[in-house]
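# step 3/5: fold
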Amino acid sequence: MIRIVNLRHRIVDIPDLAVDARHVAVIGPNGSGKTTLLSICSGIEEPRRGTVRLLGRAPAAVKIGWVGEFPDRTLLFS
């Protein structure tokens, strides 16, 4: 379960969202905030405002996976 309340960070503005799914895909046009949202949900970035909970816990406390558009170009590999 992903629960987002009053999230505001850069271009991302989500007043209320609850997703009860095991696998989630984030799609949208260039510049729409997909990477920013995933960075917040993975705990890489802290939101300026609002809360994100994964399984009722903060993102940094949950083990999650993230495969980007280019899996060979990640934070670990240039």
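# step 4/5: annotate
The helical segments are 34-42.
# step 5/5: archive (pending)
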